[in-house]
Amino acid sequence: MVLDHLSTSWSVFQALFLEAMPFLLIGVALATMARHWLPSGPVLQCLPDHPLLGPLTGAAMGFALPACECGNVPVARQLLASGSPLPTAMGFLFAAPVLNPIVLASTWAAFPDQPWLLWARPAAGLAMALVLSTLLRLQQEVNILVPNLLRERGFHQPAGTGSLLERSAGLIGSSSPVPLPLLPTRRDQSWRLSVLHGVDELVKLSSLLILGCGVAAFLQTTLPRDWLLAVGQAPTLSVLALMLLAVVISVCSSVDAFLALGFASQVTPGALLAFLVLGPVIDVKALGLYGTVFCRSAMVFVALSCSVLVLLAGQWTNALML
């Protein structure tokens, strides 16, 4: 019995890891190219810092880049490290897993007879990204981002936008701190540094992904799903049950629509939407990757905010369609 459980857990772990790893590789590759071509972030600093235009721009970038919740984290982190405005990077981080073309196509392929999902899922994902980006923009970056990311980001901020301690440059008491100049490097040396940084980031993110997939596989094979689906027709409990299921299963957003197809007829429309919106943003394996961007308190804030927003969206959908 124990061996069967371990064998099942190992199979689930392999499936989750092999499913997520290609997108993580794509994300790290994109982040490495961004680090090489935009080392000082002059273009990224021109992106909008507006509470509405910023997240919309990031969401548009998410539509152009086929990154799921594993691949978008390294790209979003590089955007922040290179000086991108916080709203734009957050819009990409939260909207990309739902708005990329692969996810939209898989949703259409899985639910061709439910056209409301084809617009409700991206609309809910975009709305959640806008709200989260706005809420995070109201806070100081030092209370949101991890220290090493803040240090990288500080070197790419325009002169005079931060204090000495925030930028780690200049002289104590200087009224106009100036960033330390970057030493010129040849193109091949620049590529070598970018690749080495990418490899280091890949190793760190892969270890976190392995940990997340292991936890997700254990929970998925230990917690019974029958009691989650038993409340499938209750307007509120069904939404909560499918939210929990999305977090535990931790399936990639590119294929989660086909998984949802298996129990779509047993749950309410709001619960189905909640599963398809929350899973791509918050699940067990993604939380470890978020640790490279957000500090612990910010991660809790993001998780709770996402949960509340998705619950409200699910409830509103049930009120309209039931």
UniProtKB/TrEMBL annotation:
It comes from the Bacteria. The keyword Transmembrane helix applies. InterPro entries: DUF318, UPF0718. It is found in: Cell membrane. It is a multi-pass membrane protein. Keywords: Cell membrane, Membrane, Transmembrane, Transmembrane helix. GO terms for cellular component: plasma membrane. The chain crosses the membrane at residues 12-31, 89-110, 116-136, 202-221, 227-251, 258-282, 288-313. Belongs to the UPF0718 family. This is Permease. It comes from Candidatus Synechococcus spongiarum LMB bulk15M.
